[in-house]
């Protein structure tokens, strides 16, 4: 079922893919991938490598379209890991297993077709967030597997894999650093009471191996595309830590925080069909009853993603800023969707309980309709298969100057 979910989502993602360069940073990300260059901080080395592969290996009308397809593929690959994590939920009794699996698979499309996640699959810049989602999904699956595993040898292997994936995730996007205490606490409580001798040296080595993706940056300082013209080791450290890429944040105040949370609430409400958020609340309550550790993990990721971004950036609530900040909340949207999935799975398994068969059928019907309802809810916002605005604008600019001319740009950020 996991493969079917990923394949179905990928088909839709490719149908709604932008066929050319998209607006915003996508032109920069495409140029960085094509030239194996260095993008804006923290450099996005892994996506540059993946994008370079897709620019050659994937069929497409334009190079930009091929690199855009990397975003779609990465987002689709995240779904099997989320499915496998959700499919192992235990609700304290023997439910009907096939209805539970079917409801879980169908409800995965709540996240697959959520407004922001789906929109990010259409263009190259979104690939950074799609890759982040994939690595978060893998971390959730591995952490969940550590909790359920009893074999000390397998637990050590799972921890090593988790450390490697988490190291890579930190090399992709800095926001994963906020979740480190959350995963550390979850793993600590999962291992508590188990007679396991942790191979810390192997875990540390695998974590370092994941972070080693950053070696790409000094290796590619000679590229024709080098954001910030990195030359020295200190330049690279500043790039990785985003020391030269901050500014514009507002001063913290409670009124600003209240506005930020209001903005997030509006964004969250628009992600899913109307029935999803009540199901999320119900699913979190069910998880707290039957799977308290996993419920705490999802709730903590949700809270840290929301409050961490609000307090860490103090972003203003202008439309332009909200557009850019929306993608940083994808982990929170993912957790909300996972909780809704848990609720549908629990009700779908109710057929094994006396008198609950109609409830089970109703939950199955709603789960089966979810892919179509989520698709209809967000298709208009996510579809970019006819979006050539940025490409046409750039072509008009270049067509307006003569051969061998130099084009000087005012307000270069807007034109980019």
Could you outline the blueprint of secondary structure elements for this entry?
Elements: H1 2-15, H2 26-34, H3 45-57, H4 63-87, H5 97-107, H6 109-112, H7 115-120, H8 124-148, H9 152-172, H10 180-191, H11 200-211, H12 216-219, H13 233-240, H14 254-271, H15 276-290, H16 292-313, H17 319-325, H18 330-348, H19 357-382, H20 389-399, H21 412-415
Helix pairs in contact: 1-4, 2-3, 2-4, 3-4, 4-8, 5-18, 5-19, 8-9, 8-10, 9-11, 10-16, 14-16, 15-16, 15-18, 16-18, 18-19
| N- and C-termini, Cα separation | 42 Å
Roughly what is the average pLDDT, rounded to an integer?
A: 89
The 3D shape can be described as globular
In N-to-C order, the SSE pattern is: HHHHHHHHHHHHHHHHHHHHH
Radius of gyration: 22 Å
Structural class assignment: mainly alpha
In percent, how much strand structure appears in the residues?
A: under 5%
The number of helical elements comes to 21
Q: How can the largest sheet be summarized?
A: none
Q: How many strand units?
A: 0
Indicate the low-confidence ranges by residue numbers.
none
User: Helicity range of the residues?
Assistant: 55-70%
From the structure above, extract its key features.
mainly alpha, 0% strand
Short description:
The chain is an all-alpha fold and about 425 residues long. The protein has helices at about 1-15, 25-35, 45-55, 65-85, 95-105, 110, 115-120, 125-150, 150-170, 180-190, 200-210, 215-220, 235-240, 255-270, 275-290, 290-315, 320-325, 330-350, 355-380, 390-400, 410-415.
